[in-house]
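Example record used in the benchmark description.
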Amino acid sequence: MMPGHAVLDVETRIRARPETIFVYFTDPISYQRWMGARAELDPRPGGLYRVHVSGGGIAEGKYLSLEPPHRIVFTWGWVGSKEVPPGSTLVEVTLRAEGDLTIVRLEHSGLPTETARDQHRLGWQHYLSRLAAVGMGEDPGPDHVDT
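Model output (structure tokens):
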């Protein structure tokens, strides 16, 4: 965590194995099912993380660490943003099996303000609910998030 920067922590439970959910963070076609109109992912340390989010924003960073099927870490920011530029924040996703569920915990650190933290919290909550639907084999429907 970066000192003096806002951190958010969101969590959801999905009736699926960690191996299933891990793929939704590393495979571009799978990623697009729950987040983004297009995803360009190179899931290896230093590889590109770039997602064209519904509403026109482009989130961009680099993968830092992948520990299949339990942990993914990547940098995050918005193309064209001065407040949260590409690669300026850190997202860590952990996947923990609990019975027939996977607990998905997402920590987003390095956000420059409480407002940025609150905006990103709303976005991640929205997208993790869509991930839960997809992970259980459901169709989350059209994405109407405002970015």
